[in-house]
Design a protein that fits this description.
heterodimer, A: 345 residues, Rossmann fold, 3-stranded antiparallel β-sheet, B: 640 residues, alpha/beta, Pyruvate-ferredoxin Oxidoreductase, domain 3, 3 domains, 7-stranded mixed β-sheet, 21 helices
């Protein structure tokens, strides 16, 4: 195998080189088109070798993604892309592995692999297309749909309490947790680059509009009339400000965040975003439509949390080297004979 | 008193006995026997499995042929002294080839009353019982559900046997007096005393066990000393009580010359995988989730990281197989190990591997089912699951191992077929072969065949890489990420022929279903023809077996042939596809009988494939067939 993988210098490629000969079959107007475009735009800028890029997906609308990327790819089975990527990355750490998944794929049928991927911290990127609906099966509620959602399978409204994907990821000790959206290409590209730079599992939740079954789910974050008051863009080391002309800010008193008018407080009193603060990132992830939130908060976008922690595949493969160092390269004849043998004449 | 080994064992009677028992004579007050069967039994915390393993290793190194059957409860420590908590280890060893762990035993070693009650039916008439009297106090008798006041060691109910009583607890306490060890540690050495004593009875030296103890407890010298002291005390006790006890000598077996080692099925499987990895030049990856009785393969492989073996204990059975699929995509020899319930969970992913046409070895160490079933007991009831158990038309090759050492050859074959035919392959073992042990004339690494991976290389010029283009085996090329120019996408959706693009075309789908089936059938061109293991090429009855029933069938057919019955034995290793000559072999006999530890699975396939009126013989008790059970059926069909 190793003889096939000769070291070649990275050859430049363009976003056009990443387009396959397959027709893209998402519904017209689907948010997935934008994400595909931004990924194809960003990848050539990352200094990767195209032959070392692998896209692995599960099942769902988003999971068709690999067919449209002229890289290595696998469209696998529902919920398992994370586990397949784990096996690939464990054995081929040099590859750039991108997992494409959705809210149903990652958080419902694949929930178990999702949390274990995060705790193990494989150096892979997870693009979680969250449209808060099951699109490919034509419109049932998903684990991120809001409670009370009326869908084909919930004519009287869903009684499920929804997942908060980023709180879940932080709870699983994810080392890079971020949110972006399909309709903000510049932000999306920035976050994709950050995800690639991070060594560890980079979870990027992407709000993605399903214009057929859940149109407008994220409109308040994109509509010009509401966007300023409903979104909060996080930048490391910068104060949490939002609203028209940044007229509002967030302060934190003890563990309690509060929305303030920018004129009420001095700039020093505002919450300064620290990506490495575990506790505060937890609080930020709770800026979410939850019954327990008395106050209404804008929805944060950006990198909530990042942490430098060893990656599974590094420790995994270091044990192989350590074992060889201690015991010497395995000798098959010795293994076959074991320690106790006898001769029969 | 004159101990005659095995004359009353039901299947060792008459002419057969005369033929098989040679040199049955007294030498220096020692009885020379051709074979012996011992059953060690006690609480699951008594160290019975370790005792059995140690005796097996020693007697195998002495040169006997050996076959073992560990039999233990699913609970790690079932309530002490109860029938539910009894753990057993049966072994048969002989001065000729031994194929089964024996039907009835000559000697039953019991650590308590429950062990006696649970296993007495396994002792032949006139056999010997060695009983730890301390395990027969009022409490133990009550827990074993003996009637009030009844003690089988005292009340004459064991008169048909020779009972030898030892107060093991008392003797280990005396032996270790002043050692400074607590009562608990002292009592834990009871099995060593018994082992020492049994070593003496069968004239085996305790040296190998002493070495084992020194290694196992290297960090606790006081425990090493105590165990060795007790082991030797048991041995010496035999010498000092010689007047009461008949020693037995089983001479080395006259088996094929060569160098042997002792091996259990699960380690043999693990070593076979490593050998296949070496011979194919591929790194080995195991994705596994712990499950009885397959976990020992994971344990064994995780010890051999210096062979480049990567073992990944996944979060569940599905991640175990899908991580292996990921590793296979990346160019590893990928394996997943499990047992029935875990295989059920892997089903969808097996279908994916079939669509991806990537090499993958799926190991099922079968246990009693359905559902959680009998986790520590053996069964062959997952054959139909392996052959048919997936959605859609999803064929794959299936290979079964017939004995502990054979796991090595069979899993090596599974790897070869997976790699060279670009397909997932099922390897079936079961609890009996996995935990059983036998001597193994192991091969030299250089004598193992090379396995040739079918890697794709960059296409010439402007030619487009076709991921589903096939060779004469109908195998597709293995194009691994990292190779420039081979970028391609694969997935679970139906593929267009050669390009691998998604296709919903009706004709293409039918074509691809048949192509995948043909690819698996074509494996038959690359495997050995079926052979007759034993008996005439034509005759009255053919016993057709598969998997772990090999030893019992072999022993039974041997006996029947010696008695002049017209019977032969063929044992199938390649369950899918069958060897090309299997049908013609089956048609050479009036009746085909198929003994299986299930409710009739191979027999169903045989009837379906060949329209042959094969007869099934079922045993579904979580226990292997005895040779006698099969012999009785052979006789029935030969006479009917």
């Amino acid at each position: 195998m190793s003889s096939l993988l000769t070291e070649l210098p990275a050859e430049a490629f363009t976003s056009k080189d990443l387009v396959t000969d397959q027709d893209v079959r998402w519904c017209p107007g689907c948010g997935d088109y934008s994400i595909l475009k931004q990924v194809q735009t960003v990848l050539p800028e990352l200094g990767l070798k195209r032959e070392e890029i692998v896209f692995i997906s599960g099942i769902g609308c988003s999971s068709r993604f690999p067919y449209y990327m002229e890289t290595y790819g696998m469209h696998s089975i529902h919920g398992r892309a994370t586990a397949i990527a784990s096996g690939l990355k464990a054995t081929r750490p040099e590859l750039s592995v991108w997992i494409i998944t959705g809210d149903g794929d990652a958080l419902s049928i694949g929930g178990n692999h999702f949390i274990h991927l995060l705790r193990r911290n494989f150096n892979v990127n997870v693009l979680l297309f969250n449209n808060e609906i099951y699109g490919l099966t034509k419109g049932q509620y998903s684990p991120t749909s809001e409670a009370g959602k009326i869908t084909k399978s919930t004519p009287m409204g869903s009684v499920d309490h929804p997942f908060n994907p980023l709180a879940l990821a932080l709870g699983a000790d994810g080392t890079f947790v971020a949110r972006t959206m399909d309709r903000d290409p510049i932000h999306l590209r920035t976050i994709l680059k950050r995800a690639n730079e991070h060594k560890g599992t980079s979870l990027v939740e992407i709000y993605q509009n399903c214009n057929v079954f859940n149109d407008g789910a994220f409109e308040v974050y994109t509509d010009k009339k509401t966007k300023a008051d409903e979104t909060l863009f996080l930048e490391h080391g910068k104060p949490l400000v939002f609203g028209n002309e940044n007229n509002k800010g967030i302060v934190i008193e003890g563990f309690t965040p509060r929305v303030v008018s920018i004129n009420e407080v001095s700039a020093n009193d505002l919450w300064i975003h620290d990506e490495h603060d575990r506790v505060k990132s937890d609080i930020l992830s709770r800026f979410f439509d939850e019954v327990s939130n008395v106050a209404h908060f804008p929805r944060p976008f950006g990198v909530f949390y990042s942490e430098d922690r060893f990656c599974y595949e590094d420790a995994f493969n270091a044990q192989i080297e350590e074992s060889i160092r201690l015991k010497g390269e395995g000798n098959l004849d010795k293994l076959l004979s074991g320690n106790n043998t006898w001769k029969v004449d | 008193m004159h101990t005659v080994i095995n004359t009353k064992s039901p299947y060792l009677c008459g002419n057969f006995l005369q033929a098989r028992l040679f040199n049955n004579a007294m030498e220096n007050n020692t009885l020379v026997a051709a074979e012996a069967t011992i059953l060690f039994a006690g609480d699951s915390g008594d160290g019975i499995q370790l005792t059995g393993d140690q005796f097996t290793t020693t007697t195998a190194l002495f040169g006997n042929d050996v076959s073992t059957f560990p039999n233990f409860p699913a609970e790690i420590r079932a309530p002490q002294g109860t029938l539910a908590g009894v753990s057993g280890f049966q072994l048969k060893f002989g001065s000729y080839e031994v194929f089964t762990p024996g039907d009835l035993c000559d000697m039953l070693v019991v650590m308590n009353a429950a062990a006696l009650k649970a296993n007495l039916k396994q002792l032949r008439e006139g056999g010997m019982i060695i009983a730890n009297t301390d395990g027969f106090d009022a409490k133990n008798l009550r827990l074993a559900k003996y009637p009030d006041g009844a003690n089988p060691l005292e009340d004459g109910t064991l008169d048909a046997f020779k009972v030898y009583k030892l107060d093991v607890t008392k003797m280990v306490k005396t032996t270790l007096e002043g050692s400074g060890l607590g009562t608990k540690d002292i009592e834990r050495t009871k099995n060593m005393f018994v082992l020492g004593f049994i070593f003496w009875v069968y004239n085996r030296q305790p040296d190998i066990t002493i070495r084992f103890i020194e290694q196992k407890f290297a960090k606790r010298p006081e425990i090493v000393e105590a165990n060795i002291k007790t082991l030797k005390a048991g041995y010496h006790f035999g010498e000092t009580s010689e007047t009461f006890m008949q020693r037995v000598q089983v001479n080395p077996a006259k088996i094929e010359s060569g160098i042997y080692r002792n091996i259990n099925g699960n380690p043999a499987t693990a070593i076979g995988l490593i050998a296949a990895a070496k011979k194919s030049g591929l790194p080995l990856f195991l994705g596994s989730y712990p499950i009885t009785p397959a976990s020992d393969i994971l344990h064994e492989l995780s010890r051999h990281k210096n062979f480049g073996v990567r073992t990944f204990q996944a979060e569940d059975e599905i991640a175990a197989i899908t991580s292996a699929i990921g590793a296979s995509f990346g160019g590893s020899l990928a394996v997943t190990t499990s047992s029935g319930p875990g295989i059920a969970l892997k089903t969808e992913a097996i279908g994916l591997a079939i669509m991806l046409e990537l090499p993958l070895v799926i190991i099922n160490v079968q246990r009693g089912g359905p559902s959680t079933g009998l986790p520590t007991k053996t069964e062959q009831a997952d054959l139909l699951q392996a052959v048919y158990g997936r959605n859609g038309e999803a064929p794959l090759p299936v290979i079964a191992a017939q004995s502990p050492a054979d796991c090595f050859n069979a899993v090596f074959e599974a790897c070869r077929i997976a790699i060279e035919h670009s397909t997932p392959v099922f390897f079936l073992s079961d609890g009996f072969v996995a935990n059983g042990a036998e001597p193994w004339r192991y091969p030299a690494a250089a004598d193992l065949p090379e396995i040739k991976p079918n890697f794709a290389t960059k296409p010439e010029g402007d030619e487009k890489f076709l991921p589903y283009k096939r060779d004469e085996k109908l195998a597709r090329k293995w194009a691994i990420p990292g190779v420039k120019g081979l970028e391609h996408r694969i997935g679970g959706l139906e593929k267009e022929h050669e390009t691998g693009n998604i296709s919903y075309d009706p004709d293409n789908h039918e074509f691809m279903v048949k192509l995948r089936a043909e690819k698996v059938e074509r494996v038959a061109d690359f495997i050995p023809l079926q052979t007759i293991d034993n008996g005439p090429e034509k005759g009255r009855v053919l016993v057709l077996g598969w998997g772990s029933t090999y030893g019992s069938i072999k022993t039974a057919v041997n006996r029947a042939i010696k008695e002049g019955l017209s019977v032969a034995h063929a044992h199938v290793r390649y369950m899918v596809p069958f060897p090309k000559n299997l049908e013609s072999i089956l048609r050479n006999y009036d009746t085909v009988i198929v003994p299986e530890m299930n409710n009739g699975q191979l027999v169903k396939i045989i009837r379906d494939r060949f329209l042959i009126d094969a007869k099934g013989i079922s045993k579904i008790k979580g226990m292997p067939f005895t040779a006698d059970e099969i012999y009785t059926q052979i006789k029935h069909y030969c006479q009917s």
